[in-house]
Amino acid sequence: MWLLIASIVCSVSVSVFLKLARSQAIHVEQAIAVNYLTAFALCWGLLRPNFAFLHEATTPIWLLGLLGVILPAGFIILAQAVQRAGIVLTDAAQRLSLFLPLLAAPVLFGESFTQTKLIGIGVAFLALLALLHKPTAAHAEPRSRAAWYLLLTWLCFGTVDILFKQLSKAGVQFAGGLSLIFLLAAALMLLWLWIQRVTWQKRSLASGLLLGLLNFGNIYFYIKAHQHFAHDPSVVFASMNLGVISLGALVGAGLFKEKVSHINILGVLAALGAIIILMPR
């Protein structure tokens, strides 16, 4: 169980890092670039990637390239969502992205909808609407921008999940594909920063090492948990998603005193309910 706990802590810690970045004068884009270089190095050293799939004519190179673009873009959007909407709502929206692949499953993966899946998707959709709810008070306009970033977070991470499932369906070795995606994401971020002519900051670059450790740790411990509970994947699925939302809510509301509306709280609770309903059986 410690593997799941480690993965949950790493996931929420990424949100905490992004929450604190502005107050600590950290240039998030620089940290994200170093994060991907760090993740690539860790992936190379710990997962021992195999790149034999690159010699196969059926390998969907375009999927690797697309993920290399969407991952860093999604990370930047995630950072904005955490800053504007807070950890509580952002972590819930990110975990609710699991129902986007379920919507695409009949078309892309040949899976059919069951009554349980339809109920779970319906509850997840209501949860997302509740998370995106904004007040009608004077501060509604900034909250409106926050809602857009939450929606984009949900869309980006749901799309990433779909693309990774497509890679798996194509038979691409996970560690090898992930390594190349990390390397491409790092290269694109560095190119973007060079085009922007940013002033490089030692503090931001160094903090990227920590972000990379947390980001890769989330993935690594999650993989190890799936291997450990190979015959009971529902434990990993439920524990990871419920754990991140619950711990994110405790950290966001307890540590950072984030203010959420009653409807937002209902959205978090509905998200927890949707994950329980959608748990693999």
TrEMBL record:
Superkingdom per UniProt: Bacteria
Keywords (A to Z) from UniProt: Membrane, Transmembrane, Transmembrane helix
Transmembrane segments: 33-54, 61-80, 116-134, 146-164, 171-193, 205-223, 235-256, 262-279
Keyword Transmembrane helix part of the UniProt annotation: yes
Protein name (Swiss-Prot/TrEMBL): EamA/RhaT family transporter
Source taxonomy: Bacteria, Pseudomonadati, Pseudomonadota, Betaproteobacteria, Burkholderiales
